[in-house]
Write a structure and sequence with these properties.
Largest sheet: 5 strands, parallel
CATH class of the largest domain: Alpha Beta
Order of helices and strands: HHEHEHEHEHEH
Oligomer: single chain
Number of domains: 2
Structural class: alpha/beta
Length: 178
């Protein structure tokens, strides 16, 4: 059913007078602001990937790799007690990285662990796929981990930007630390 133009002309001033048009306008403004936020997050992620020299993998792709038995290393960069211990992606090992970009190795910010500790964790096969994740897209712990893996000579490095939040959002199983 089409609303006649004369009715729309009458209805619009009434909506404005009673303040009912405001929520609709606010919804539209909010939609545009949310798009700006999404754009900023997407551009930030792309720039981190470009700086780090690694690739990205989606939650669904990682699940397929795990289900297929792909030989890879999955690294959780979240704090042990706050996250990894309670739930992590099945098969993942933990290595703490800080949130601010870590351009120089800082043992204090990696829970007292050295570059050599990270190298030992990553293993001798520089071509083995390595997937590094943290909590969620805006968290940059995974960027630091992936960027350092590349700096140390690993060639098949992926960042799982959605992290454990996206994993749980997909209702995939998690593990607790033993």
């Amino acid at each position: 059913m089409r609303i006649p133009e004369w009715m729309l002309n009458l209805l619009l001033p009434v909506l404005l007078i009673f303040g009912l048009a405001g929520p609709a306008a606010a919804f539209l403004d909010n939609k545009f602001e949310k798009e700006l936020e999404k754009e900023a997050a997407a551009v930030k992620l792309v720039r981190e990937v470009q700086r780090g020299g690694y690739d990205v993998i989606t939650t669904g792709e990682l699940k397929k790799w795990i289900d297929s038995g792909k030989d890879m290393l999955i690294v959780d960069t979240m704090p042990y007690e706050a996250s990894y211990q309670k739930n992590h992606i099945p098969g993942a090992v933990q290595f703490l990285f800080p949130i601010p970009e870590m351009t120089k190795w800082d043992t204090e910010k990696t829970g007292g662990k050295t570059r050599e500790d990270f190298l030992k964790l990553l293993g001798e096969d520089n071509d083995k796929p390595i997937v590094i994740y943290c909590g969620f897209v805006k968290c940059t712990r995974s960027h630091n981990g992936a960027a350092w893996a590349v700096k140390l000579g690993y060639t098949d490095v992926y960042r799982h930007p959605g992290g454990i939040f996206a994993w749980k959002g997909a209702d995939y199983p998690t593990e607790e630390a033993e």
